[in-house]
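**Protein fold record**
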Amino acid sequence: MRLSKLFKNAPTVNVTGLCFDSRKVQKGDLYFCLPGMTYDGHDFIAQAVEKGAIGIVHSKEIENKLEGAVYIRVEDVVLAMNQCARIFYAKPSDKMTMYGITGTNGKSTCANIIKYIRELKEPCGYIGTIAIEYGKVRLAPDLTTPDALFLQKKLSDMVRAGIKSCALEVSSHGLAQHRVDAIRFDVAIFTNFTYDHLDFHGTMDSYFNAKSILFKDLVKENGVSVLNVDDDKFEDLKSLSKARVVTYGVEKECDYRAINVRIDPESTTFDLVYQEKIYHVKSSLVAMYNVYNLLACIAALHQTGMDLAIILQACASIPQIEGRMEQIDCGQPFHVIVDFAHTPDGMEQMLRYGRHIANEHRVISVFGSAGKRDIAKRKVFGELADQYADLIILTEDDPRDENPKDIACQIKEGIQDTPSVFVEDRYEAIRQAIDNASDGDVILILGKGDEPFMYHTEGRVPWTGDNNCARECLAQAGYTKE
């Protein structure tokens, strides 16, 4: 593409790629000098030019301009990069039905539900914490919401592959760092808003302001905001949304409401009230928070043209979502459930569900807390486990360069009555939970889900995933069905 198509009055040199990492620049790339929390892209211009960048997009004054590249000064490099990426990749989000899901919890579940049901109508892609999927392509993710250049390229790849819709998890980090500014969404879904990410955002107000960007920027014709009417932030988001608002919930009157909810160990049923008509819904997804996730997806899919009867019928066959309330069944006489829960609200939802299905049996919880992240929630995790669990096994969970035992001691500050042990190796902690379980017990393995990595002092290292680890430990204990 000609540089003049990206910037007015620019030379007609040919741009073959876009890049903001000087180490990855290839000949013909346009290099963006992004400001960062640790490094500034302006400091690596020489490296970019040496590698063959044909253009440098910058916001600071450059005294010594190296020959061989065109220099374009802009006020905001991030804004310019988003606009260029949108044009360079031929505006891919305009050519698909785009679902953006944000909220503290439930993003991965909602995105996967949407992909599963939407594909009954047309090919649908998915980008999020679990994977990047479209057609026969499945790639490992790096971030929940990847950078702007990667996103536009992958959406362009989807369009070329014949994909007609895409469900995208939109994190608060991604919104605050403007990774989705150039994406035009048809639907913005809000799941819930609870404590999380204060190590990055600083305050709950700042965290909420980041989430609200998705709804303020929903400008696509016929766009719709799908909001949880039961959440405390509902009224704020409703007033901020530039698009038509559709509501869902359980406790209050709304457009899509669940009543007569029944949650069993292996299924959930409820009656959906929509326009004064009642529809029966059954799903293998369990726990109350999944009722909300289902309602959000039903509303989003219905509002984008899918037949309600088809959507509700599909709810009955939604497969287990990896690492999200994933029930591991190898024929053992007790429950083993793996979940990504890593926030106080997510932990409480899981522990409460475990207590609900355990009845008179024990709840055994296995979890830790991430190093260098939200220290204040560690004691809260201990308090929650103390309230609902009968045995607590504390272990490592992305300790980074913190000592896992020190993290466990901080969690223990919230544990008053429940027996607890510290087993540093996560694999061994899961094995001990399984070896300790009796018939009817419920083991909750929380925090990592299906993530195939763990962060230690040396960086990101491979991890088998809590779900795979549980299966291996069950097999070692003599349970092999699944």
Q: What stands out?
A: The longest helix spans residues 288-303. The first strand starts at residue 17 and ends at 19.
